[in-house]
Amino acid sequence: MLNQNPEQIARDNIDRQLNDCGWIIQNKKQINLTAGLGVAVTEYQTDIGPSDYVLFVAGKPVGVIEAKKEEEGVRLTVYEDQSKDYADSKLKYLNNAPLPFVYESTGDLTRFTDYRDPKPRSRPVFTFYRPETFQEWLKRGKPLRQRVLDIPVLQTAGLRDCQIIAINKLEDSFRRNQPKALIQMATGSGKTFTAITAIYRLLTYAKAKRVLFLVDTKNLGEQAEQEFMAYMPNDDNRKFSELYGVHRLKSSFVPTDNQVYISTIQRLYAILKEEELDEKAEETNPGEIKWEKRQPVPVGYNAKLPPEFFDFVVIDECHRSIYNLWKQVLDYFDAFLIGLTATPDNRTFGFFNQNIVSEYTHEQAVSDGVNVGSDVYLIETQITKKGATIWKGQYVDHREKLSRKKRWEQLDEDVVYSQTELDDKVVNPNQIRTIIRTFKEHLPEMFPDRTNEKGEFEVPKTLIFAKTDSHADDIIQIVREEFGEENRFCKKITYNSDDPKSILAQFRNDYHPRIAVTVDMIATGTDVKPLECLLFMRDVKSRNYFEQMKGRGTRILNLDDLKKVTPSAKLTKDHYVIVDAVGVTKSLKTDSRPLEKKPGVPLKDLLAAITVGARDEDLFTSLANRLTRLQKQLTDKEKSTFADKANSKTITQVVKELLNAYNPDTLEDLRLKVEQENPDAAPIEKEEKVKTLTTALQNQAASTFNGELNGYIENVRKAHEQIIDLVNPDKVTAVGWDKDNKDKAQKLVNTFTDWIARHKDEITALQIFYGQPYRRRELTFKMIKELVDAIVADKPTLAPLSVWRAYELLESVSGQPKNELVALVSLIRKVSGIDATLTSYDKTVDKNFQNRVFKKQAGTLKFTEGQMQWLRMLKDHIAASVSLSVDDLDYTPFDAQGGKGKMWQIFGNETENIINELNEALAA
Fold first, then answer.
1. Rounded to an integer, what distance in angstroms lies between the CA atom of residue 395 and that of residue 549?
2. DSSP 394
3. Alpha-carbon distance values, 167 to 367, 371, 886 (Å)
4. Per-residue pLDDT at 114 exceeds 60
5. Rg of the chain taking only CA atoms, in angstroms
6. CA-to-CA distance for 515 and 533, rounded, in angstroms?
7. Helix 191-204 to helix 161-175 angle, to the nearest 10 degrees?
8. Fewer CB within 10 Å, N or C, the chain?
9. SS3 of residue 59 by DSSP
């Protein structure tokens, strides 16, 4: 007899799930608790009546399931008291204690409560836990939500304030049993380090079993793996990798003996669906795929990776990939979710229940000296803004993207192209060259102190954002030509590079390359601290993505480490420059990338969507139609290459498989087959079998597509569409610092001036400058150093070199300060009114020295050449260190010339008078 009533349908669903999860189902008349580790007995009698299911593990009762029909899903919490009563009751024949594990379930919706928790609270779960899970939990004693209460006070050595706040508030969130928490920390402020510290504490003190670190691209996974391997806790002298196993998932195999697992979200989705995934599918950020799915293919239960496999899931850059198709991956696991992002949007706040445990913005990070800020330099050209027209009758090159093969052909109609069609439909080398040449010519204006020992300008480490791989190749060639440099000067770092990881390491650690060009590989997440300049040659519409791209330049770096790759650097990295050549800083941005309707979705996104697991009918149909159109454009040779990359299938065969996956006749045949082979099965069982066969048909059609084939399809489609425009020259229409920079600079100068005015009566050095100018000779290196420290401690953004740069944007300045102390003295002289123009203190000292020597030489006193040599050394010391004392003569550079004794020998009793005179005269 077929089971048709709602209650029994719910029981059938529960039975199926229990079986999948490793439970043996028995009725109360045929109990055999030795049949397996986990036995679920139906209608077991208790002293308050029969329980729907009593769960036994290793022969002992551990929990109950209260089953309800599907319509009761909305009221499941109403039945919590009923199920708790069964759990607390005495089972027939047994003198049991209350059972800790309690479920309420309709077979579609299941809620679970662990009554061992400090404040037991039910939560929705994907399905039931495995018997071995309950066995292990009972052996451990305290449950996880109890163990998080045992985490000790954080040891703060080596941690920034923002990291300390984030970790402490995150652990408070765990103690309150909040299932989701969001850490917002500016790029460069140490999000990953913060996360690893928190993970270390969860593994060490809360005895968490496993933690998942989830990313959205392979590159970020590799970087996270390196950071885990290098991490050294501050309360143990062993590395993290010596204490805990770290495993990055690269296939469908999931080992069980590690504590930290790193994976892309698309690989985890494939694992749950028991599908293999090409590594190339992990190179594209899934949040950037513009495919709108009507109904994502749901993940199913996977015994190799049950929902309780992870205790905690950390989602890196969580604003990009946790919605739509990907959200169900997170819903599958019964784990605390921890989001990491620098740029949250409204969806992010909503997903994490507005439980924001850390809000540390880029502005705060810059203010605290954790990050550096940016200045924007604009380059506008005529063709970049307006495009151009190639007139009918012109002979132009047509270039194939893959082979770069050209053919010369006369146009039979006008070609009008816009800004958005540049570097896609049409490539204009003149436009690229104009931008690169202008960039090169104005680099000394952006970085005025970058002359090396040979007197040559040294290009700072620069990252150029290109639109496509083809665009990147064009840029590289022109950069090398315009800078007159060799191959290693400028390199491409994209997933299609020969050895992207090696080139990235060179860019980060070596002198060459000076300039790197990327499309997306290091647009987000990747750490390149010596980077000082970002050149945008592509526009970005997503506000979050743009902030992530800008974040590549925000990493702080001290002078010694900067000089390792940029020897001409004279100052600590205190800012970076955004060179906007396409209007990216002015273009309209949206909080999240709008999803296009299907007819306008780029072929690249259709291919990416099917590769990472999207399976809806419109996707298959759209892709089949695009491939049919593509077939008409390809040569025989290109069709043959397609087959080589598509498991020997022709385009026609691939299209047929795509259409067949949703063909009504095919699906009806599958349904009839199931009916014929399973005449006595319940309807729900038949439906499951039909679903399994349908899914297999869809997966078979999708299995053809992989990273290599997708790349070929995308490029070969465009191979016939690219025109090289050498007819239209480009010209610069505007170049220079962005007005916004000046507004920020004025605000910084005003803040500095106010700070000095507020403290001029409190600090000795300022008292001397303002009220007692006759005492300037008393200023010492120590006084100025203490003043610098006081300013930076109170307001890191007022670091003297930052204020100096602000003045440079606002007015003409004279010279470049050699260090912070010299900069500060110059700034105070300007603010206090001693100097009308901001002048580097060494220039002031030089001028005063010349005046003094000239007066002396014009009188009766004449200095010998030996005396002049010493006077110049004394002058240089005062220029760099503000003042000079007799004791300084025992140190560099004086000691090499004989020190204090030599000066006495040359100047005799006048030695101290000369030192006092120089201190007074040169500081005038």
1. 39
2. -
3. 21, 20, 52
4. yes
5. 35
6. 9
7. 40
8. N
9. coil
Give, to the nearest 10 degrees, the angle between helix 683-702 and helix 664-677: 140
Question: Which carries the bigger pLDDT value, residue 338 or residue 670?
Answer: 338
Q: What is the 3-state secondary structure (H, E, C) of 120-177?
A: CCCEEECCCCCHHHHHHHHHHCCCHHHHHHHCCCCCCCCCCHHHHHHHHHHHHHHHCC
| Residue 688: exposure state from Cβ atoms within 10 A (0-12, 13-18, ≥19) | middle
Strands (E), 461-567: 462-465, 490-492, 515-518, 533-536
Best CA proximity match to 154, nearest among 175, 169, 143, 174: 169
Residues 6+ apart with CB under 8 A from 141: none
Cα separation of 448 and 467, whole Å?
30
Would you say residue 275 has pLDDT above 70? yes
Query: What pTM value is reported for the model?
Result: 0.74
DSSP state of 461: P
Residue that wins the pLDDT comparison between 110 and 294 = 110
Phi, psi (deg, nearest 5) at residue 440: -65, -45
Report the half-sphere exposure of 175 (CA within 13 A, side-chain side): 11
Question: What does each C-alpha distance from 161 to 158, 358, 472, 756 come to in angstroms?
Answer: 10, 11, 40, 27
Nearest residue to 721 (alpha-carbon basis) of 415, 477, 474: 415
3-state secondary structure of 889: helix
Q: Which of 278, 172, 268, 148 is nearest to 212 (CA)?
A: 268
Phi/psi of residue 51, nearest 5 degrees:
-90, 140
Q: Which of 4-18, 171-185, 317-331, 673-687 has the highest mean pLDDT?
A: 171-185
What's the CA gap between 16 and 10, in Å, rounded? Answer: 10
